Amino acid sequence: MRYHGTVIRPPSEANSFILQVTYGCSHNKCTFCGTYLDKPFRTRPVNEVLEDIRLARRLRPETRRVFLADGNALVLSTSRLVSILDELAAGLTLLERVGIYANARDLLGKSESDLRLLCQKGLGIVYLGLESGSDEVLHSVRKGATAAEMIQAVQKAQAAGMRTSVIAILGIGGPKLSSVHAEETGRAVSAMDPDYFSMLTLMLVPGTELYREWQGGAFQLLDPEAMLLELRQSILHLNGLSHCVFRTNHASNFLPLAGTLSEDKKQLLATLDAALALGRPALRPDAWRGL
Question: How far, in Å, CA of 263 to CA of 154, rounded?
Fold first, then answer.
């Protein structure tokens, strides 16, 4: 398999066959994200994609999961995605699920019938970066979508039969917007009721606009305790979720948490409170954190 530039995937896709079908991100304007700064968006030639699938059939016949990269591969036309999914199904006989990154525009731009077709063809889970439920925060980081649009997008994917995994970022509003970011993120995720919800912790990436804002004093990074307090406030506002699995197992986080929000909310809050009482010794060292 051949890869171009930086390739990322969700933690839950660690054992998946990563198949690049696009390069970069079609939006690529978020002030905090440095993943694709050196990789302009373009569609990967379909013959190369099909060659990699045939190669995987020989080298990884045991493959059960595939993740379609890069940043928002759902931007591809439905017909292009169907041809890729059909080739995967034909070549990998043990295949159980295909996952993909998407943004609100990708999901809202496809018809309900298109999304149902993609689900029937094996596209089983969509990962969406909410980042924040606050429109003020989303505007400040140039996300390119409102919270309402992302809620609608997630609900549309769910109606088509897809599982949804939503990601938000602790600290992205800075001290000034920390409280509204936490509360509105909890409310937005509650409205989405995704299958999975995870929170990352903001780590400033050199070369990004947010990093330059921090260098110039226009943005302040929360300290570890403030990050945990923001996490606690977010969890407090997660209500009415049916079966949502919650994780903070990403390497950027100071404290790994795991549970089902409908059952484990009190225990998650108790674990957070215990860590806050212990202070820095209870947290992951900075040297162990990363993107």
Answer: 22
What digits encode the pLDDT tens for the residues 198-229?
999 999 999 999 999 999 999 999 999 999 99
Global confidence as pTM: 0.95
Entry field: residues in the chain = 291
Distance CA 131, CA 103 (A): 11
Distance CA 253, CA 238 (A): 19
Residue 1 lies in a domain: no
Q: Does 143 reside within a domain? A: yes
- What domain count does the chain have? 1
Whole-angstrom Cα distance, residue 76 to residue 79?
A: 8
CATH number for position 106: 3.20.20.70
> d(Cα 126, Cα 111) in Å, to the nearest integer?
16
Residue 216: which domain range?
A: 13-284
Residue 290 included in any domain: no
**pLDDT tens per residue, range 228-254:** 999 999 999 999 999 999 999 899 999
Instruction: Indicate whether 194 belongs to any domain.
Output: yes
Per-residue pLDDT tens for 113-134? 999 999 999 999 999 999 999 9
